[in-house]
Amino acid sequence: MDKELTPNQRKLSRTYLVYRALTGLWFVSAVWLYFYRLFITDQQVGILDGFAFAIGLIAEVPSGALADRFGRDKMVKLGQLLAGSGFLIQAFGSNFVPFFVGQAIMMIGVSFVSGADEALFFEKLNFNRASVNWRKLMTRGSQVTLAAALVATIAGGLLNGINPRIPWALTGLALISSIFIMWSIKDTRPEKTKRRVSIELREHLISIKEGFAQFLTPKLRLYVPIIIAVQGLFYTFGWGLLRLILLDRFHFSPFLGSVAIATSGLVTVGILAVMHKYAEKISERRVLALISLTAAASLLLSIADIGMWGYVVILILYAGERTLYPFMSEVLNNRIEERQRATVLSVASFLYTLPYVALAPIIGSLSTRGHLEYFLIVWAFLIFTSVVLYLLFKKKDTFVSMTKKETEVETRVPEIST
User: Fold this and answer.
1) What is the pLDDT of residue 200?
2) 3-state helix, strand, coil in the chain (%, to 5)
């Protein structure tokens, strides 16, 4: 990829990788539930997450529209400031209220960043759409993020034993520091594409409505089942209660849990390296189906009392989330218009965040009562269904595309006079 890039594209690519490294330093990733448990129950954690993530969800789609209008660079910087501040508030909390306030602020910040940073870099880099350069950079970015997360996860597990507040404070500071890396990157789209600053509410709502409408079009609707069921599961696992509850179900201690997550990240880096090397040869349909079916199988495997063998489940879900992301990013960015890119990406984030808003209280309650298997069985069935729908839509989409190309070729063939 590097030989094909301009000097500016190389510089921006390096900036993107540093940015991804800083935003991957989540020192709390393997220990946050144990910190909450010092003060509140799993059921309260589920309620807290449900309401806080709902607030973030409400901010999700408007944030993309605001980024398209006011400037994606501004939304990214504001979002990382809010996200980091939310962690700092929780770091010094000792009951439900500061945890809820901090979590809500953090989720609003994450919503502001979601889609805006990706859309900003995609526009600034201006890769050839016919190439796989963007997917390669996203894959490399995922590797860098995982490497940073590996260090942060192990460090967080160790620091939790010293003082459980330290991982929270360090995560907040890392997110805030990413602002300075992005400081020189400006959203330089023509003013006519940014929209005027003083916009009317009606125009803003129309923009959001158009973003949702994009997912009803043939070019994007085939991915909706995967986004909701599969990416929704990965979001619940990566951001929500599920990962740490599963680690607890498999009898991992806080430190061993951090080791399990870190080593899963290390293995995933290797998988992403292979994907990066063979990017041109990898089939989207096979990868999406394989990741989805493997994720569903891992949920069913979690029903059994498999002890430390549960590491296999953690690895599958961890790697699945990271390997699916570059493909979905490429699909969405290549199939949406520039003027609505951040809005549509935020709608996608809305769709895969939505399940956890409802699932957080349910998972917390089922965990408290010892009946998590109900969720595992139902969601595995939903994933199997989503794969079937995706393959049916994909087959139809491929047929329509081929028919369209054949028609275009026929119209270009000159008539032979007789």
Assistant:
1) 44
2) 80, 0, 20
User: What's the pTM?
Assistant: 0.69
What is the reported pLDDT for 231?
93
Distant-in-sequence, close-in-space partners of 185: CB < 8 Å, separation ≥ 6? 12, 15, 73, 120, 124
Please measure the distance between the N-terminal and C-terminal CA atoms of the chain and give it in whole angstroms: 51
Given its phi and psi angles, is residue 414 left (phi above 0), alpha (psi -120 to 50 degrees) or beta?
Answer: beta
Contact present, 73 and 120 (Cβ < 8 Å) = yes
pLDDT above 70 for 7: yes
Inter-axis angle of helices 242-249 and 311-335, nearest 10: 160
Closest CA relative to residue 115, chosen from 171, 59, 172, 177? 59
| Calpha distance 365→363 (Å, rounded) | 5
What is the CATH number assigned to the segment(s) 210-394?
Answer: 1.20.1250
Question: Tokens 């190309």 sit at which residue?
Answer: 405
Where along the chain do its domains lie? Answer: 1-194, 210-394
Amino acid letter, 393: F
Say if 1-194 and 210-394 have the same CATH topology. Answer: yes
pLDDT of residue 129: 66
Tell me if 331 sits within 8 A of 394, measured CB to CB.
Answer: no
Query: Which amino acid, one-letter code, is at 92?
Result: F
At 199, which helix (H) or strand (E)? none
Q: For residues 388 and 369, what is the distance between their CA atoms, to the nearest angstrom?
A: 33
Distance, CA of 141 to CA of 19 (rounded, Å): 9
Angle at 324 between CA 186 and CA 66, to 5 degrees: 30
Q: Over the stretch 368-409, which tens digit does the pLDDT of each residue have? A: 888 899 999 999 999 999 999 998 888 776 645 555 555 554
Handedness of CA 363, 368, 371, 376 (dihedral sign): positive
- What number is the average pLDDT over the span 342-351? 77
Is there a contact between 156 and 28 (Cβ–Cβ < 8 Å)? yes
> Tokens 């939903």, residue?
382
Token pair recorded at residue 374? 């109900």
Q: What is the mean pLDDT of residues 257-274?
A: 87
321 contacts 234 by C-beta, under 8 angstroms: yes
Answer CATH for 1-194 from 3.30.530.20, 3.30.930.10, 1.20.1250.20, 3.90.780.10: 1.20.1250.20
The confidence band for 416, taking pLDDT boundaries of 50, 70 and 90, is very low
Q: Which tens digit of pLDDT belongs to each residue from 46-82?
A: 889 888 888 877 776 666 667 767 778 888 899 999 9
